[in-house]
Amino acid sequence: MAVDFASGAQLIELCRKENISIGRAMLLRECAQTEASEEEVRERMRSALRIMRESAMRPQETPVRSVGGLIGGEARDLAGQKDPLCGSLLHDAMTMAAAVLEVNASMGVIVAAPTAGSAGVVPGVLLSMEKHRGLSEEDLLEGLFAAGAVGYLLMRLASVSGAEAGCQAEVGSAAAMAAAAAVCLCGGSPKMSLDAASFALGNLLGLVCDPIAGLVERPCQSRNVLGVADALTAADLVLAGVRPAVPFDEMAQAMQKVGRALPVSLRETAKGGCAATPSGKRLKEIIFGCGRP
Amino acid sequence: MANISVFDVIGPAMVGPSSSHTAGAATIGYLAGRLAGGDLSEVVFTLHGSFASTYLGHGTDRALLGGVLGFAPDDLRIRESFAIAKQRGIAFRFETAEDDDPDIHPNTADIRMTCRNGRVRTVRGVSVGGGKVRIVRIDGIHVRFSGEYETLVVLHRDMPGVVAHVTGILSAAGVNIAYMRLYREQKSEKAYLIVESDEKIPPELIDRVREHPAVSDTMLLEV
């Protein structure tokens, strides 16, 4: 079967026709494109999952300092927080998202999803659901392929690059991917998964990319924490029966257009937003003022 | 954009913090090191654009050097690449280009590698996003390939018959060519033939490619 899809609408139609999930559609597409067996592709995804798990867990016990020194220890702080306002599933997702960014910023090994700067959102949501919803490894792989389907569409229809379209394209895309995976793993239909992706993407439209000192540290880490909340709230909206006004494909186009409209100063150049505040500039001076950080 | 793999989305697995400035830099270094193909004594990196202005905080320098040393983008030895290069007796330094050609891609590195036998090879690589790269110059000649395919690079003197010689050997061995391009300085001068293949190119074929009198060097970049 030559499986392929170039839009959310085509993906929904393919899933309906073949009676498969969006995760399975993405797996079959990968097999068709690379001539690899299902088991080979799944094994590769399993190894990505292992790295995600390691990077989401380790800093909760053993904090690591970032290269620039702006982050380190947040995952342990969150893990040790007593009586957080957010519920335990969301709070664990926040903790793991922060952990992955800590590992990333300290030059540890992570899996970009879809980018390194937004690598915390997908593992945060999936691994927290594993813990609280008793998901199996097979479920997690299904979730990663579902997330991959949405990420692939966003790469194709819009952009996942902060330099091109701001943080909405990075954390926004990651949240859309995670929201679709979450709905899929809760038994939602392909259409519902893409509805959740539309909500998650739409709710972060316009988010700028403004890293302090140009480093993938702050505000990137807390934006990943925001990303898991965006994904889980979008998933709950859809699972409760709420429908978005704008379908996924149109929302992807909107994200791309908003990205083009963002000034260059707010697209990963470290010349606007948080980076251009007096505190942001002072931190840059401290980090780079005396040579090597 | 149609040939995006799920592992371009959930991936690459990489040493952080940036797919373009760290993982892509490591891949450029890796390909350059393979193109130098020898025991290195000195490596000089010239960074352009965003690479030049933000390399310190992204570990771009460690990633480029680690790549030249043969480390993949997910190899944690990238963090220690300075010390490992010193242990191996390889001198290295980083320079930033004073504002150059405005058309140059913002994430560009020039890598000048000197082998212990005195041979020098220069490579220009560009990190195009998401960890993907393009090699755009070898020894000053404009080329273009990604390193995502098995790649055979044949340095030769521009004259009739070289392409037929190479494709003849590959086709006899059942190697399917995905892309092939010829780049040259000018007629009858130095030229590069770049062959990207779907299959593995058996190393023994390379010896036969070298038998042609116009071929002066070959490099095989395995996936």
Structure in words:
The complex is a heterodimer of chains A (293) and B (223). With 293 residues, chain A is mostly helical. Chain A has a single domain (8-288), classed as 2-methylcitrate dehydratase PrpD, CATH 1.10.4100. Helix content of chain A is 64%, strand content 1%. Chain A has helices at residues 8-18, 22-34, 38-61, 74-79, 88-105, 121-133, 137-157, 162-165, 167-185, 190-203, 220-239, 248-261, 278-288; one strand spanning 109-111. In chain A, α2 crosses α7 and α6 (121-133) packs parallel to α9 (167-185). In chain A, 59% of the residues are buried. The mean pLDDT of chain A is 96. With 223 residues, chain B is α+β, with helices and mostly antiparallel strands. Chain B is 30% helix and 36% strand. Chain B is built from seven helices and eleven strands. In chain B, the strands form two sheets. Chain B has a six-stranded mixed beta sheet with strand order 3-2-4-5-6-7. In chain B, α2 runs parallel beside α4. The longest helix of chain B is centred in the first third of the chain and has 18 residues, at 19-36. The radius of gyration of chain B is 17 Å and the shape is globular. At the A-B interface, α2, α3, α5, β1 and α7 of A face α1, β1, α2 and α3 of B. β1 of chain A pairs antiparallel with β1 (13-15) of chain B, so a sheet runs across the interface.
In short:
Chain A is mostly helical and 293 residues long. Chain A has a single domain (8-288), classed as 2-methylcitrate dehydratase PrpD, CATH 1.10.4100. Chain A has helices spanning 8-18, 22-34, 38-61, 74-79, 88-105, 121-133, 137-157, 162-165, 167-185, 190-203, 220-239, 248-261, 278-288; one strand at residues 109-111.
SSE layout:
The complex is a heterodimer of chains A (293) and B (223).
Chain A: H1 8-18, H2 22-34, H3 38-61, H4 74-79, H5 88-105, E1 109-111, H6 121-133, H7 137-157, H8 162-165, H9 167-185, H10 190-203, H11 220-239, H12 248-261, H13 278-288
Helix pairs in contact in A: 2-7, 3-5, 3-7, 5-6, 5-11, 6-7, 6-9, 6-11, 7-9, 9-10, 9-11, 10-11, 10-12
Chain B: H1 6-9, E1 13-15, H2 19-36, E2 40-48, H3 49-58, H4 60-68, H5 81-87, E3 91-96, E4 107-115, E5 120-129, E6 132-138, E7 141-145, E8 150-157, H6 162-172, E9 177-184, E10 190-197, H7 203-210, E11 215-221
Parallel strand pairs in B: 2-3
Antiparallel strand pairs in B: 2-4, 4-5, 5-6, 6-7, 8-10, 8-11, 9-10
